[in-house]
């Protein structure tokens, strides 16, 4: 799962000290239109030429496309290539080339016609703004505007490119009931559903995307051959094989063990794009350099997973299932060089793999994108907080506390229910039971349970005592940034629900005179534990109707929240859009 927030080094009671970041980060203020030409991902040269569609593509661009672009602040994620060993440059070059192929798959998963639209926009100089925004959104639909189309007029299919456009939820579920032997294949992370001779069939990713996966696997084999670090070499070789066999288990486990100077994450992971069921994983890639010193300092947090699990506000009858997850929790701090297969809001951290069977055996890895975190804190969190948080609490907002909070959000993804026991005694997975509501519940659970975890670490002296207030202000500041994404997006829906619930309990207070919000430190801890229990129990029970009822009650933008969001205005970027010099630099490697 991903977090979409912020910052630099973590300082925890002298245990986790700040270190010098030598990776340059150039933050560019949002320019007036026309925006600067972005550093875009190269089109995969090994791909088959795009064949024009019939009927012709509708390339009509939304008239306010320049204003939409201005919501994103470009930041250049540069790096010092003189510090990279020659063999590592080959590994990175091949990983970047593989990522370009992965991105092409992602475009097809979001929209079967995505690559054709992308190529058409890129080759038409009059559509330059549309092409730029397409690169940000990963398709024709605007995630910041309830998935409205900004290219053409076609509505986004809830099932994206994973299912036939004319297939309904009822048809899928009826098929699974009538064909129980195919349930596993139909609900698999790694199959697409197609019609063949009028009948629904599950097609493995390795077959559906063979045209891109075969050359991507070849790139990873070349990277593996060049890699000197044994753990990275092993992972790349296993992941290359997995792309062609559709079996990611062993390579996911190998990825957990990678500890060298290079961090490569590549494969099908998140299910956000499948808005029909959230069953299907979309392909993505992150290529980064690991901050070895800071990652080492965070090992103390990863070692506390069993204690954090025991501290969860969850009834004992559910804790056995929750405790079945392994507690291995490597935490890596990295400097992002490029990513692929992402859309809309730029992720700042991720916790993978999502496969509950792997988590049961191996746990999960948390990866914090340090340079992205810093850019978001400076560009958005501080200026947003200055407009909506009570002035006497603004002094409590700082980068260290925000980083700690985001880290605990990712840690919390690895805690709580995963594989669960239903009322009839059968085993299932939380995401399978909560379906399209899973993303919103899981992100909200991670937000709030992360606060519970942070408070535990403060009480144990692992985090400094000053975080006792700062961590909650960090949550409130990042909450308002996420609200700007809207309640349709998983993170936005979850955070609006959480803020409304905590306000009802008195943990967050609105001052009508100043139109600002503040934390009631006397009530916030109790409210957070109660809310964490709500989310954890919904997951432990696989309670789809309970999740639906919770969102219907709380995922509502109140007049107070609406006014606050309006107060933020349009002058502050909604998000960043990273520019990746590695695309050009790696050509010479």
Would you summarize the structure shown here?
By secondary structure, the protein is of the alpha+beta class. It is built from 26 helices and 17 strands. Strand 4 (141-142) and strand 5 form a beta hairpin.
Q: Could you characterize what this model shows?
A:
By secondary structure, the chain is an alpha+beta fold. It has two domains: 2-30 and 71-111 and 157-166 and 205-588, no CATH class; 31-70 and 112-156, no CATH class. The protein has 26 helices and 17 strands. The strands form six sheets. A six-stranded mixed beta sheet has the order 1-11-12-10-9-8. It has a three-stranded mixed beta sheet with strand order 2-3-17, covered by helices on one side. Strands 4-5 form a two-stranded antiparallel ribbon. Strand 13 and strand 14 form a beta hairpin. Helix 2 runs antiparallel to helix 8. The relative contact order is 0.14. Residues 4-38 have low confidence and may be disordered.
Number of helices: 26
**Strand arrangement, largest sheet?**
1-11-12-10-9-8
Number of domains: 2
Radius of gyration: 23 Å
What best-fitting shape do the alpha-carbon axes yield?
globular
Calculate the terminal CA-CA distance, rounded to whole Å.
33 Å
Mean pLDDT: 89
Helical fraction equals 40-55%
Q: Structural class per helix/strand content?
A: alpha+beta
Sequence stretches where pLDDT stays below 50 over 5 or more residues = 4-38
Strand content: 5-15%
- How many beta-strand segments? 17
Largest sheet: 6 strands, mixed
């Amino acid at each position: 799962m991903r977090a979409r927030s912020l910052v630099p080094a973590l300082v925890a009671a002298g245990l986790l000290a700040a270190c010098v970041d030598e990776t340059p980060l150039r933050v560019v203020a949002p320019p007036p239109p026309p925006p600067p030409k972005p550093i875009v991902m190269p089109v995969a040269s090994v791909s088959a030429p795009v064949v024009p569609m019939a009927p012709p593509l509708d390339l009509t661009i939304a008239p306010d496309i320049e204003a939409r672009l201005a919501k994103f602040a470009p930041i250049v994620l540069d790096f010092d290539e003189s510090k990279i060993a020659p063999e590592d440059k080959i590994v990175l070059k091949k990983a970047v080339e593989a990522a370009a192929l992965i991105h092409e798959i992602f475009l097809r998963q979001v929209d079967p016609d995505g690559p054709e639209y992308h190529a058409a926009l890129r080759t038409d100089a009059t559509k330059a703004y549309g092409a730029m925004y397409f690169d940000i959104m990963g398709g024709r639909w605007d995630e910041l505007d309830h998935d409205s189309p900004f290219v053409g007029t076609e509505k986004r299919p809830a099932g994206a490119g994973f299912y036939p456009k004319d297939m309904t939820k009822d048809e899928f579920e009826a098929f699974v009931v009538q064909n129980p032997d195919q349930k596993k294949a139909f609900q698999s992370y790694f199959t697409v559903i197609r019609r063949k001779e009028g009948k629904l069939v599950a097609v493995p990713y390795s077959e559906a995307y063979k045209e891109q996966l075969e050359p991507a696997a070849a790139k990873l084999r070349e990277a593996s051959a060049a890699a000197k670090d044994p753990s990275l070499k092993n992972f790349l070789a296993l992941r290359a094989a997995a792309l062609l066999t559709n079996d990611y288990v062993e390579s996911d486990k190998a990825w957990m063990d990678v500890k060298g100077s290079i961090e490569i994450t590549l494969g099908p992971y998140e299910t956000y794009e499948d808005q029909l069921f959230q069953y299907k994983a979309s392909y993505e890639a992150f290529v980064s350099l690991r901050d070895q010193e800071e990652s080492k300092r965070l090992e103390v947090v990863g070692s506390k997973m069993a204690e954090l699990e025991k501290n969860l506000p969850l009834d004992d009858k559910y804790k056995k299932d929750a405790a079945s997850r392994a507690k291995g929790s490597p935490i890596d701090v990295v400097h992002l060089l490029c990513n692929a297969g992402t859309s809309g809001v730029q992720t700042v951290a991720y916790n993978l793999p999502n496969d509950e069977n792997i988590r049961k055996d191996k746990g999960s890895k948390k990866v914090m994108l340090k340079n992205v975190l810093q850019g978001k804190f400076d560009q958005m969190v501080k200026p947003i907080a200055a407009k909506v948080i009570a002035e006497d609490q603004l002094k409590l907002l700082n980068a260290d506390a925000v980083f700690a909070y985001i880290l605990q959000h990712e840690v919390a993804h690895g805690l709580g229910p995963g594989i669960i026991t239903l009322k009839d005694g059968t085993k299932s997975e939380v995401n399978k039971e909560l379906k399209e509501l899973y993303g919103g519940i899981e992100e909200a659970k991670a937000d709030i349970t992360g606060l519970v975890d942070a408070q535990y670490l403060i009480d144990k002296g692992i985090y400094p005592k000053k975080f006792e207030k700062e961590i909650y202000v960090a949550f409130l500041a990042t909450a308002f940034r996420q609200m700007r994404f809207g309640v349709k997006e998983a993170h936005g829906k979850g955070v609006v629900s959480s803020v409304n619930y905590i306000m009802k309990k008195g943990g967050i207070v609105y001052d009508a005179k100043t139109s600002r919000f503040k934390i009631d430190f006397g009530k916030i801890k109790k409210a957070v534990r109660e809310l964490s229990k709500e989310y954890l129990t919904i997951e432990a029970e696989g309670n789809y109707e309970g999740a639906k009822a919770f969102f219907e009650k709380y995922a509502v933008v109140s007049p107070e929240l609406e006014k606050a969001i309006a107060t933020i205005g349009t002058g502050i970027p909604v998000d960043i859009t990273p520019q990746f010099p590695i695309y050009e630099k790696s050509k010479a490697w």
